[in-house]
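Bench notes, afternoon.
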Amino acid sequence: MIDTKRGGPGRGQGRKPLSPDQPTVVVTMRMTQAQREPCGLLGGAAWVRRQLEQAAG
């Protein structure tokens, strides 16, 4: 077998967690095309998360 130093997982790669103590889940939202652009301009997923946090109090 050939010993190579290529391939394999890299340390520190991938999406960083939003919170170190709470795991995240993927959520799919449905909206119209007309709603999609303003949502993106307002900040996309980060904006939606802020809205949910504010609504929760």
